[in-house]
Write a structure and sequence with these properties.
Elements: E1 3-14, E2 17-25, E3 28-29, E4 34-38, H1 45-52, E5 60-65, E6 68-69, H2 75-84, E7 86-89, H3 101-111, H4 116-129, H5 145-156, E8 163-167, H6 175-191, E9 195-200, H7 203-208, E10 211-216, E11 219-221
Parallel strand pairs: 4-9, 4-10, 7-8, 8-9
Antiparallel strand pairs: 1-2, 1-3, 1-5, 5-6, 10-11
The protein binds adenosine-5'-diphosphate and magnesium ion (MG).
């Protein structure tokens, strides 16, 4: 998916001080690339991903998705893009604790109005594809961190998005599990032809990425 930002800026006001979390960022991803955004903690990675994932709105500057100026979209249109075109993998997964693995993956399909049969069949297939065919009925608390990460990735893929945006997807994982998650994201990019954007510290991800951007104090260097 084509995403472009122009002087994208997000500031937070905390008491009397102003924090510039994302500072005039000009960022562009084209079609089926794998892009890594690398920077230390606090550099603005999550803020930037939340902006381009339409979870948050800029203080100034613009985000274009497929040449559409997203600042002109209604809330309903933004929700539609989030539901159908963007698969977001949150740093802390955001799995719903009262739903099992299958139900977590079914949720976006349910919101998209898919039939229950279709939801179930696809959720099973997606979880099998991420290696969790034997964990379908597990609740999030019964899963390891690596397994939760896989459920979150399967859920992000539920409505066949054009882009997967993942916030430090290997940040909490041991190196073996991290390697598996990286190869999963790489396969999603190459086989499903899905654009992948990851924020990371992980050099192994940097190695597989087509494009590397670094971010420091909210400023992006390509
Ligand atoms: P990263 O993901 O690279 O660790 P973040 O995007 O989370 O960085 O944060 C960038 C900066 O913005 C940090 O200085 C952080 O403290 C600040 N920040 C992030 N979210 C908020 C918020 N909701 N309110 C105030 N400051 C925030
Ligand atoms: Mg972060």
């Amino acid at each position: 998916m084509k995403i472009k930002t122009v002087d994208l800026t997000r500031t937070y006001r905390v008491g009397p001080s102003k924090i510039i979390a994302v500072d005039k960022v000009n960022f562009e991803v084209d079609k089926v690339t794998f892009t890594a955004i690398v920077g230390p903690s606090g550099s603005g990675k999550s803020t930037l991903l939340n902006l381009i994932g339409l979870n948050d709105c800029p203080t100034s500057g613009k985000i274009f998705i497929e040449n559409t100026d997203t600042s002109l979209l209604s809330g309903r249109e933004r929700r539609k893009i989030r539901l159908f075109s963007i698969g977001f993998v949150f740093q802390t997964f955001n799995l719903l604790p009262t739903l099992n693995a299958l139900e977590n993956v079914e949720l976006p399909m349910s919101l998209a109005g898919k039939s229950q049969k279709e939801q179930r069949e696809k959720a099973v297939r997606l979880l099998e594809n991420v290696g969790l065919g034997d964990r379908l009925s597990h609740m999030p608390r019964e899963l390891s961190i690596g397994e939760m990460q896989r459920v979150a990735i399967a859920r992000a893929l539920a409505n066949d998005p054009e882009v997967i945006i993942a916030d430090e997807p290997t940040g909490e994982l041991d190196s073996k599990t991290a390697k598996e998650i990286i190869s999963l994201l790489f396969d999603i990019n190459r086989k499903l032809k899905t654009t992948v954007i990851v924020a990371t510290h992980d050099e192994k991800i940097v190695e597989v990425a087509d494009t590397l951007c670094t971010i420091g104090d909210g400023k992006l260097k390509v």
